Amino acid sequence: xxxxxxxxxxxxxxxxxxxxxxxxxxxxxxxxxxxxxxxxxxxxxxxxxxxxxxxxxxxxxxxxxxxxxxxxxxxxxxxxxxxxxxxxxxxxxxxxxxxxxxxxxxxxxxxxxxxxxxxxxxxxxxxxxxxxxxxxxxxxxxxxxxxxxxxxxxxxxxxxxxxxxxxxxxxxxxxxxxxxxxxxxxxxxxxxxxxxxxxxxxxxxxxxxxxxxxxxxxxxxxxxxxxxxxxxxxxxxxxxxxxxxxxxxxxxxxxxxxxxxxxxxxxxxxxxxxxxxxxxxxxxxxxxxxxxxxxxxxxxxxxxxxxxxxxxxxxxxxxxxxxxxxxxxxxxxxxxxxxxxxxxxxxxxxxxxxxxxxxxxxxxxxxxxxxxxxxxx
Length: 377
Description:
Elements (H helix, E strand, L loop, with lengths): L2 H29 L4 H16 L1 H4 L5 H18 L7 H11 L4 H21 L3 H86 L6 H25 L2 H13 L7 E7 L7 H22 L3 E9 L2 E8 L18 H12 L3 E6 L5 E7 L4
Parallel strand pairs: 1-2
Antiparallel strand pairs: 2-3, 3-5, 4-5
Helix pairs in contact: 1-2, 1-5, 2-4, 4-5, 4-6, 5-6, 5-7, 6-7, 7-8, 9-10, 10-11
């Protein structure tokens, strides 16, 4: 329940109780029946006890506070029947401060006390008996409904907090994923253009140096070759620094094992003679595995997937499979289709490395994503 609403209800309860107490005291003085001074003193004690309830409700002594308040109220009822109306705000105090089992029982008992107190003054009538009892059951229904709304409100707030935290984590994860993807792209671009170009220049200059080692300008050729070698080393350093940390720190197999999460179990196995793969190949295989596992998580309807990394001859093959709901492979043939975009990116990665990507699936038979590179450069 929103705090402003709760504060308004609590303020209304305070005003109701104080107003009914003042009404009972004023009527005693106006009608001049009973011991007016005793009613005034007991009413003041009752209000003071009620005012202390803000402290008592935060401690284990709340039950004793309610017992004392009830005794003082019944004393007022015994002195003047007008105090019997104070039972209505007391109903809500019982339901708020006591447990769901004890609260309704306390409401029924206080209603019976009100009937007895009022009947002792004016005799027992249908209205005097039925009125407090009906009010008691109405108060119980309202109190239990309020408690249910309050619990539901707290649960909703908890879910909202969890959703916001999940959204924050997802945003952070997507940001990190975007950064890593861009780093990988830049590393590949530098490797495929600048580094390869410098390597070719160095080889050509070395060939020119060997062809005419005593010719004019040989020192300039050597200087150019040394400069190209230095810049090639610098370009390769950039590539290493831009490489995804999980690969740089522990290799492809360990990075694949980290794909297992709390809601998705990923079993990773290796076959053949495990070798250290060139960083562009390892990065591409890791990205393909991440994309395939993401598809399993979103679409497969299963929480188990397997990744097999097979080293065969001079090549490597990675297979990501699941036993989920599967799909018709024809639906991903059109690279412009939204659902096929991820597979199109995977194929492009493998095509850039002279490899192939195969997707095998059928409805109800799971999915196999197979990335193959026949020759590791």
